Request: fold
Amino acid sequence: MARIALFGGHGKVARLLEPLLVADGNEVTAFIRNSDQAADVSAAGATPVVADLERLDVPGIADLLRGHDAVVWSAGAGGGDPARTYAVDRDAAIRSMTAAQQAGALRYVMVSYFGAGPDHGVPEGDSFFPYAEAKAAADEHLRGTDLEWTILGPGTLTLDPPTGRIEIGDRSPGLTATVPRADVAAVLAAVLARPRTAGRTIEFTTGDTPITEALDALP
Reply:
């Protein structure tokens, strides 16, 4: 059993992930923005904790993370407000990494997106640009830490039923660039159960290979 801290605990992916982690015998603390979300998180088997990531400093986040073994960052501002996007998706995410180091929660899994990075190619005038810049900065910061990090880069998220099958690092013809959120949750759970995925950026879309087989086949 591991104690797992989940930022963005009321998000669509998170609520699919929580029961998977609990079924694997883990204890899950889900950080949420307001108490109205607590009932949904409890129903998924996690323990809800209200935390304002935009206001919490590093020591405050570290206090939340003490006693946990792993951290999953699935939080986000949700777009629309560039200032808030940078505040959450970049600044708060980076603070959480420093806090995880201070708290000894050394396993850290970041939910990013397929194609994230300094060369993301999103034009500055595009409404997606602040998110792309924020994720590029957060991902690069994470790679420079001594955390046992994994960055997941799923394709475009959908609400389709899960397929249980992915393709890692490929958007070749014939493969969709999308992936159901339920499959992203399954990949998260599988990665947390596989320490050897630490130090990797894993980009994936819906494909033909069962999730566990695809991860176990990584060199």
About this structure: The CA atoms of residues 50 and 84 lie 18 Å apart. The mean pLDDT is 95.
